[in-house]
Amino acid sequence: MQCYRYLRRAVLLAAVLVSAGCASWQPEPWVSPYERHHLADPIMSFERSPASQGYLHHVYDAREGARGASGGAGGGCGCN
Amino acid sequence: MVATEWRLGVVLLCGLLSWHALAATLPEDRVDLMYHGYDGGGLDVDGPMVLVRKGFQEKVSVWGHYYADFISSASIDVVTSASPYEERRTEYSVGVDYLYGKTLMGVSYFHSEEDDYSGRMVSVGLSQEFFGDLTTLGVGYAFGWDEVRARDNDSFAEDIRRHNFRVELTQVVTPRLLLGISYEGVSDQGYLNNPYRRVRYLDDSTSRGYSYEPELYPETRNSGAVAIRGRYYLPHRAAVGGEARYYQDSWGLRATDMEASYTHTFGQNWILEGRYRFYRQNSVDFHADLFPRAEYQNFRARDKDLSQFRSHSFGIGGSYEFNWQAVPVVDRVRASLYIDLIRFRYGDFGDLRRSAPVGEEPDYRFTARVVRAYLSFFL
User: Fold this and answer.
1) Interface contact A78, partner B, CB < 8 A
2) Which residues have a Cβ under 8 Å from the Cβ of B59 and sit 6 or more positions away?
3) Can you say whether residue B58 is alpha, beta or left, with left for phi > 0 and alpha for psi between -120 and 50 degrees?
4) What phi and psi, each to the nearest 5 degrees, are found at residue B15?
5) Would you say the C-alpha torsion B16, B18, B22, B27 has a positive or negative sign?
6) Is B53 at the interface with chain A, CB within 8 A?
7) Which of A34, B170, B311, B333 is least surrounded, with the fewest CB atoms within 10 Å of its CB?
8) Can you say how many angstroms the Cα of residue A69 is from the centroid of all Cα atoms in its chain?
9) Average of pLDDT values for A26-44?
């Protein structure tokens, strides 16, 4: 359970960072908004089709002993 | 009871995926209709999937998801120690995401039902963009409660409780490079066995030289996985991607996997993709292909999914997107087809269909085919 104590602390720290409004601290972005058109292209999405990609990860999870942390932003349930 | 393995993956994954949605923009309105199919090792699973997502006032997005598995199993477990069977699993999930400034919050509920298993999970998630929107941090938690039953025993009913924690960071590194890192911890407590699966042990009193007894797993399993992934934009509107993951749990299982992908476009309408993935794991501490005697140790497993193996996956597919004016609410349509082949090669799981002295059976191996064909309607 040692790892779960660390994990809970990490989650708590992340939540505190979010709730503390770290977004108000804005360093100079090294990639300007007008330079992000390539990143906005659908082919740069970690999971362009969430339902389809989610299904493939489900196949892996069903056949393999490992689980978790698979997939990127986007998932199998209508997620982005 | 291969369906149990199949279902457990879905229960775990779909409960977790709801917070993958989180980024500081609402997902696109869409309707997806998909046919999915898996065929390999005597297990045949296919069925439909429907996904509907709709946003309101650029603040709220609700979604619903329906998924069904029609399972026909004559897997190696079934043909060597049970009888082939068919069954159906149905899954529903709903969720809502709320956007407030650069913070996106989401909550979802998932329910899966079949003859001998019920799975439910609620999940919450939150994400926030930082540093000029170059960094996105997401956190999530899910709680699941399942009931395990047995078709041949009406009085049998056991519970499982699941807790999932996830932290994810996505970073814009350059105008062409995206990186992401995520950690996920999962804790399961309860009846983690398969009520039908059995282990085998040496038994000289039988003609074949071995007998079977029920498997027995610990009632707690804690795991952690960390993954790093990236995508790089190439000239001529193409992209390469890579991902690596490391996993370990309290049952002694260690696993690593790596994936590389390439995406290429033709004009504005066609996108083709190719992918390769390598996965390997060792056996859990209490796994054996053949135990020396009955009740040899406290915990016993003979499960190929928890045994040492390697797999290689090759995938190819593509999509064609076009404007569609026939229905006023539909903006455009994307038709997609993906096919993956996965080769499994086990290192501590004998193929008992082959004639050989007891304990010297050749290792089991098989190839599975995964098909995904779907239409996406963007509203």
Assistant:
1) yes
2) B26, B98, B99, B100
3) left
4) -65, -35
5) positive
6) yes
7) A34
8) 9
9) 85
**Interface subset of B 154-183, CB within 8 angstroms of A:** 164-168, 170, 172, 174-176, 178, 180, 182-183
pLDDT in tens, B337-377: 999 999 999 999 999 998 899 999 999 999 999 999 999 99
Output the pLDDT for position B21: 38
CA–CA gap between residue B160 and residue B220 (Å, rounded): 10
Tell me, yes or no, if A72 comes closer than 8 A to chain B by beta carbon. Answer: yes
Put simply, the answer to whether B175 touches A62 (Cβ < 8 Å) is no
B308 at A interface, C-beta within 8 A:
no
Q: What is the pLDDT of residue B11?
A: 42
Size of chain B, expressed as the number of residues it contains: 379
- In the A/B pair of chains, how many CB contacts fall below 8 A? 271
A5 and chain B in contact, CB less than 8 A? no
State how far the alpha carbon of B5 is from the alpha carbons of A10, B19, B155, B367, in Å. Answer: 31, 23, 22, 17
Residue-wise pLDDT for A39-72, tens only, equals 989 999 887 888 888 899 989 999 999 998 875 4
Q: Specify the residue for token string 């790093």.
A: B228
Q: Which residues of chain B have pLDDT under 50?
A: 1-4, 8-22
Interface touch A11/B170, C-beta < 8 Å: no
E-only strand ranges, B287-362: 309-323, 332-350
Cβ atoms of residues B160 and B170 within 8 Å: no
Domains of chain B: residue spans and CATH: 2-378 (2.40.160)
- What does the block give as tokens for B122? 């609620």
CB atoms within 10 A of CB B325: 8
How many angstroms separate the CA of residue A35 from the nearest CA in chain B? Answer: 6
Closest alpha carbon to B54 in B34, B23, B32, B31: B31
Taking phi over 0 as left and psi of -120 to 50 as alpha, with beta for the rest, B28 belongs to beta
| B123 touching chain A per CB within 8 A | no
* Residue B188 near chain A (CB below 8 Å): no
Q: Which of B310, B313, B365, B305 is nearest to B341 (CA)?
A: B313
Instruction: Pick from B13, B53, B170, B266 the residue to mutate for testing the A interface (most A CBs within 10 Å).
Output: B13
Give yes or no for B370 touching A (CB within 8 A).
yes
